[in-house]
Amino acid sequence: MMKIPFLDLAAQYESLKPEFDSAIQSVCANTSFILGPEVSAFEHDFASFIESKHCVGLASGTDALRLAFEALQISSGDEVIVPANTFVATAIGALEAGATAVPVDIDPDTFLMDYKQLETARSSRTKAICPVHLYGRACDMDQVMDFAKQHNLAVIEDTAQAHGARWHGRRVGTFGAIGCFSFYPGKNLGAFGDAGGIVTDDDHLSQQVRKLRNYGSEIKYHHPERGINSRLDSIQAAVLSIKLKHLERWNQQRWKAAELYRSHLEDLQSDEFVLPDILTPEQHVFHLFVIQVKDRARIEKELMEQGVGTVKHYPIPFHLQDGYKDLGYTEGDFPITEQLASRILSLPIFPGITEEQIAYVSGCLRKSLR
Ligand SMILES: *Cc1c(COP(=O)(O)O)cnc(C)c1O
């Protein structure tokens, strides 16, 4: 029996270990722990990778969302449209800024925000849309931007799962006013701890987020506005700069792995087993490879018994979580998202996953589906 964890970051670490070790030692030796030169260097590198004018490094992706809304002065009484199918942090970002998160259901074929429902979700209080490029798949930014322009809404992109993906040639995260990234260890570009950042072409917004992440201050002990402490630290920045050089290649490996899964399993597709669309390596950077299965509990268990790790992204949508009861939603409000939550299963996918491992996982799944 093989053992294939859902996510294996060890090989990636081992392959670059001397570089990491020396970069971390250098931060320690320079004692440049907070906002050191490593942070500005990474901000510069990441902005240029994303093809955006500015990047501001932050402590997490959740803070990136929160500070994006705050920089745009979206707050109490304002509404932000978010997809119902997302990681809870998308909603936390809007709520922390003081606004309300208004979910829309998703398109069952793409798992992404259903653009046709934006009009239903819109009210006189709507100030922004927050499309999420979930699982690594680029949203249709033509649809999002058209709707936003028509109704004068800001667009804040949640790009936490789609570092490097493109929509019609342009990097996601650069369409709206601000793109929000997480560098949580398991993301396509991940640090050795919590980290995040925003990108924007707008000088003023970049300056605002820069201030807000540092106690609302540009000049030490002068606080023209209230901020928080949410800085990317220098050790994480140094690690991220090293990894960034390999991101494009790692994204290619993810896409190849997805394509291979598909070629192994395509013939089994039915109402009870659905594979994700492969699209192009540009449009989908496969942060996650999410299948839909009818008999999920059994399949999950059988895969585990054969040494295959799986995860559910996400088993309970945020509108049905106890922590979000006050938003006032109940079961049945977003039926596609809810139905999907009971069927989705993420298979192992990470840079460096081998053809042999993919063949083994596919073989186990084939047995279970029979
Ligand atoms: C990971 C993630 C976040 C939050 O990022 P953190 O760095 O964990 O705070 C936000 N949105 C989505 C879609 C994510 O996957």
Output the number of helix runs.
Answer: 12
SSE pattern, N- to C-terminal: HHEHEHEHEHEEEEEHHHEEHHEH
Q: What Rg do the Cα atoms give?
A: 21 Å
- Which distinct ligands sit in these coordinates? pyridoxal-5'-phosphate
How far apart the termini lie comes to: 20 Å
CATH class of the largest domain: Alpha Beta
Helix content: 25-40%
- According to CATH, the homologous superfamily of the largest domain is Type I PLP-dependent aspartate aminotransferase-like (Major domain)
Shape by Cα distribution: globular
Largest sheet, described in full? 7 strands, mixed
Structural class by helix and strand composition: alpha/beta
Total strands: the figure is 12
Count of domains: 2
Question: CATH topology of the largest domain, which one?
Answer: Aspartate Aminotransferase, domain 2
- CATH architecture field of the largest domain: 3-Layer(aba) Sandwich
Proportion of residues in extended strands? 5-15%
Mean pLDDT: 97
Strand order of the largest sheet: 1-9-8-5-4-2-3
**Low-pLDDT segments, ≥5 res:** none
